[in-house]
Description:
This protein is of the alpha/beta class. It has helices spanning 2-16, 78-86, 101-113, 126-138, 151-165, 174-183, 207-223, 226-236, 240-243, 249-254, 260-278, 291-295, 300-306; strands spanning 50-54, 58-65, 69-70, 90-91, 96-98, 168-169, 188-189, 192-194, 283-290, 310-312.
Amino acid sequence: MVKRRVAALLLWAWLLGQPAAAQIPLAPADPNEALVEELVVTAADPGPAWWTVSNGSATAYVLGVPSLAPKRMQWDRTVFDRRLAKARVVILPFENFRVKTLGALGAGVNYLRLRSSQPYEERMDAEGRRRFAAAREQIAQPAKRYRTHHPLAAGLMMSTDYREHFELTTTDPTKLIKLLAHQAGKPIVEKSYDLGPQLGAIIRTPDAAGRACLNEVIAQIEAGPEVTRQAARAWAAGDVRAALDNERTFERCIAFVPGAQALDARVKRDTAAAIEAALATPGSAIALVPLRPLLAQGGVLDQLRAKGLEVTTPGETIEPAS
């Protein structure tokens, strides 16, 4: 639990350590808000939607995965199993943010510096305190759970507690697919981003950015988990449009933070490059990419099309059963 929380703080620390703008914008640009509409297509095959990327001699089958979903959710693996059997390699989402061993001690010290003897809600105005208290009660947490002086730290902890309380996860179905790929003896491509040296920067985060993010988390809890559950069911049925209606608290939240767009662009470039590299050898590959970064204008598929690769939508990928 502590390890996961420190990793989350590390991600925010990297973002918040980037050069700050003069002000936090009231309506920050979301790099994954605008989609390439012709790619948003309901799947013709059973199960979740797949896109294909090809250079003529090799094909990457790209599965768009939800950023948040119920734990252990069920989905039709017919197409996946067939493609895994033939795949040379499986590319997992580039979402690993780690701290190297040598930086772990400093990361832990900086994390403790965020702690406070006072629950965060006691620092809020009357309306904010009411909403915060109602939200934590909804996820069965006491006020002392959020003893921190920083709104961003409070929001991160509350977001983690919300997911755990309602059994939501950011790692499914990727975790299952990684296991299946290992069992099938398939090479796996992953990428980690080391954020350890930047953890101290979180302490210098402007309160305005932290409060904006905390408000997003409280709004998510107020809305409840059914939005995510409905979107997950749509994802499993190949209904891409409805799957994109998933709760996006994290994405909207980091849009307030200087450096967020740079990290988003870096991950999308790295992902597109990994898929392109997999196409250098004839045969097929599987790639998992979160839905919005996959389909956004300037996203992974948009970048691959710009390189001259052929991209096929889920509505065009009907395959024989054998």
